[in-house]
Amino acid sequence: MRADLDPIDLGRIGVLPSCWLVEHVDGDFQYRIAGDKIIEAFNQPLIKRSLKEILDPDTAKEIGRRWALCLDTRKAYINKGYVSAPKGYRYLGVRVGVPLLNTAGDPTFVLGYTIYREVSKVLNEPLATSIESDNLVFFDLVNFENEVQLD
Predict the structure, then answer these.
(1) How does DSSP assign 52-96, residue by residue?
(2) Number of folded domains in the chain?
(3) How far apart are CA 21 and CA 111, in angstroms?
């Protein structure tokens, strides 16, 4: 549950810089936690901002659809390849997202961890055509070992 998540604990174990937490609010997702590496990659404040404010409309729609599927199915996801970034940039990386419940027991939050490997500036090319398209897999955390092959 979201109530069990303490950013201080994430910092203590050294993972907070690459962590992010979004909440599904009024049909969009808003950042509640964004570690330093996430903020650096987006080069702008993220807390209390929605996908629609941060990303171009096509990218925001695609990422929102992915996070909604994560919540609707109550399955985590992992992907390797290009990950979302501000317009004009691509990051090669790995992203994991895990659904979290609110205090009423409803899946409302996605907790994520992103590792950025490299960045390249892309001129005159829409980002949404290739974001997060490589090796996307949704999986049940209980059966993680049986469902996901990382080769």
Answers:
(1) HHHS-HHHHHHHHHHHHHHHHHT-EEEEEEEE--STTEEEEEEEE
(2) 1
(3) 4
Sheet with 19-25: strands ordered across:
28-34, 19-25, 107-121, 89-101, 76-83, 136-139
Region of 43 on the Ramachandran plot (φ > 0 left; ψ -120 to 50 alpha; else beta): left
Residue 151 is assigned to a structural domain of this protein: no
In a domain, residue 47? The reply is yes
Total residues belonging to the chain = 151
Residue 41, domain CATH: 3.30.450.20
Residue pair 16/113 in contact (Cβ under 8 Å)? The answer is no
Tell me the pLDDT tens digit for each residue of 85-144. 665 666 778 888 999 999 899 999 999 988 887 655 544 344 333 334 446 676 665 554
| This prediction's pTM | 0.76
Q: 38 in a domain, yes or no?
A: yes
**Structural domain of 102:** 2-137
